[in-house]
């Protein structure tokens, strides 16, 4: 029986190749994502940085009046560590911490009538840094007049201690504000250092710009403070507003219109003022009319800030009652689970990172105020770079108080 020879390889029919269906790649994964970047010119506040030099053209609060005492107090402002004190004659002083002699910290110094005395060798410096005594030197220091402790000028106003940290020849007058100068009957001024408006602790661990930009974002009030975390203010604030923005002389203004159930309109005007002002009327709408308080965001450094507030009140402790509460609890009284379930400004701001990742933003029409605010800041950066004075500084001691149009207004 003839056997069929095995087929050669060429005799074996090749299988029909399977149809290859191209698979669309998902390009939205995080793989290969470039490192995020931030707008350093707007966020970094240390000496020599663009924003640091701009902010140093203005006065900043560094403590309550009571913080300047005969006990030296450590403060950190715009990335610089300083010592705040008040000599025994009542004059406040702000100096760099390391003694000009051999560097011991004046935090351990003794405050006397003539200034602050270093604990190491007793050199005495007045509130303007002049060395007035060197007890270990012949005749109390024959060359003491040649030594000066680095210092900054300070003034007191509205219950706060203010400092100017910029070029001495560019020092402006400390501004006054119309809403704090004109008091209604029964009102008096109260100051507070608990970072009212920050939604969290006294010192908030993220860049100051993250809060400053929050001032021109009225829509987060509806989402974050109302529908998402429950009503944290009043029911009126939960209504979606019709919003417009405009530029005032030294601020970005946000005008929010809310149609109320009774047919009236709540016109709410808030402002982000230069250099760091919170001109925000009460979200609890206790009274209608002009803004009740001002807040100053103090950049401690690139990664932290705090807020000082001064307001017109009718009873002591009224400002403290403005702190955000959830179910009657302050931020520090909430559990971690409650923070996650009911976030506020603190959680929204700090979760962006120590400094927000600006390169990964996708700004929308509701962010127009933020774009305007960044442009306003950039304009001031350019002015300083070109040898000009930024908006909001004034060298006339007789200049009128600064006026803001912010407030809650009820219209028929």
Write the layout of secondary structure elements.
Layout: H1 40-43, H2 50-55, E1 59-64, E2 73-77, E3 80-86, E4 92-95, E5 110-112, E6 115-117, E7 124-125, E8 131-133, E9 151-152, E10 154-157, E11 160-164, H3 178-181, E12 188-192, H4 208-212, H5 219-228, E13 242-247, E14 251-259, E15 265-273, E16 277-279, E17 289-290, E18 293-301, E19 304-313, H6 336-341, H7 345-350, H8 368-385, E20 407-411
Antiparallel strand pairs: 1-11, 2-3, 3-4, 4-9, 5-6, 6-7, 7-8, 10-11, 12-19, 13-14, 14-15, 15-16, 15-20, 16-18, 17-20, 18-19
Describe the structure.
With 412 residues, this protein is α+β, with helices and mostly antiparallel strands. It has two domains: 65-156, Rieske [2Fe-2S] iron-sulphur domain (Rieske Iron-sulfur Protein); 173-388 and 399-411, Naphthalene 1,2-dioxygenase Alpha Subunit, Chain A, domain 1, CATH 3.90.380. It has eight helices and 20 strands. Strands 12, 13, 14, 15, 16, 17, 18, 19 and 20 form a nine-stranded antiparallel beta sheet that branches. A four-stranded antiparallel beta sheet has the order 2-3-4-9, with no helix packed on it. The longest helix is centred in the C-terminal third of the chain and has 18 residues, at 368-385. The relative contact order is 0.16. Mean pLDDT is 91; it is low at 1-14.
Write down how many β-strands occur, each being a DSSP E stretch of 2 or more residues: 20
Number of separate structural domains:
2
- Broad shape: globular
Mean pLDDT: 91
Major β-sheet annotation: 9 strands, antiparallel
Beta percentage is: 15-25%
**What is the CA-atom radius of gyration, in angstroms?**
29 Å
CATH architecture of the largest domain, by name, is Alpha-Beta Complex
Q: Regions with pLDDT < 50 over 5+ consecutive residues?
A: 1-14
What percent of residues adopt helix (DSSP H or I)? 10-25%
Per CATH, the class of the largest domain reads Alpha Beta
Distance between the termini: 112 Å
Q: What structural class is derived from the secondary structure elements? A: alpha+beta
What is the number of helices? 8
The helix/strand series, from N terminus to C terminus, equals HHEEEEEEEEEEEHEHHEEEEEEEHHHE
Look up the CATH topology of the largest domain.
Answer: Naphthalene 1,2-dioxygenase Alpha Subunit, Chain A, domain 1
